[in-house]
Every structure is written in structure tokens, then in C-alpha cells.
Amino acid sequence: MLKRFPVIQFFLLVTLTLGISFFIHVQLLEQNGYPPYADLLPLSYLVNGVLAFVIFTLLFIFRHRLKSQIGFLFMGGSFLKFIFFFLLFYPVYKEDGTMDKLEFAAFFVPYSICLVLETVFTAKMLQKLD
Predict the structure, then answer these.
(1) 62 and which of 21, 49, 66, 129 could share a cystine (Cβ 3.0–4.6 Å)?
(2) How many CB atoms lie within 10 A of CB 115?
(3) 3-state DSSP call for residue 65?
């Protein structure tokens, strides 16, 4: 049934995957003695998930009208995520003058997960257009 509704399927998979990843991320931080919710971790997962959903939804809505520009729009979505990173996260991460591995992971783990899911779903969407 969900095969007919790729946007809902994408939303559910992103939510489930990010939820599991967030839980594992927090557990690893706690087990290693780090504060589990530092480095804007919850906000990072939320922002990346919402942006991934919005970007894929827009790509899906305009898939027929802008078929030949989907790749550029996809790259524009990645650019939008980096704008959010530099506006919301980077200033906080650089307050102490350096960005450590935990701060890097706090943003780029959910970013990477969303990027992979967006890529797979966008590729499937484009295959169905041919």
C-alpha cells in the first residue's frame, strides 16, 4: 500500500531511521561519559529530518514539471542544509574556537543518513518517470 505513496513512505522511513540513530547516538555518548544531549544533538536530528522531508516532498511535487532539473534541485536542497548548518550550528560549535569530533558527528550523522535516504528515494522517483 505504501508503494503508491512515496512521500509517506519516505517520511516514515526517515522518522524511523533517525529515531533509531538518535537513540544509538545518545546511548553511545552516555556509555562513553559524554553529555548525551549536548552539541545541539536533538535540534540537529530534527532540522535534518524536517529539511529532508520538505526537500523530497518538493522534488516529488515538481517531478513532472521540472524533470530535467531534479538533479540541480536536489543539489540545491543540500546547499540549503549547509546554509542551515552555518546559520544554526556552526556559530555554537565554534564558540570555543574549535569544532571537535562530537560536534561534527552531532550534525553530520543525521545529515548523512538523510542524504542517503533522499538519494535513494529520488533515484527511484526518477526511474519511475522514464
Answers:
(1) 66
(2) 17
(3) coil
pLDDT at 4: 78
Distance of CA 99 to the CA centre of its chain: 20
* Rg for the chain, CA atoms, rounded: 16
> By C-alpha distance, which of 109, 4, 5 is closest to 57?
5
Cα separation of 67 and 71, whole Å?
9
pTM exceeding the 0.85 threshold for the entire prediction = yes
Question: Cα dist. 103→15, 87, 107, 109, 110 in Å?
Answer: 22, 15, 7, 10, 12
The overall average pLDDT reported for the chain is 94
Domain layout of the chain by residue ranges: 45-130
3-state helix, strand, coil in the chain (%, to 5): 80, 0, 20
**Residues of the chain whose pLDDT is less than 70?**
1-3
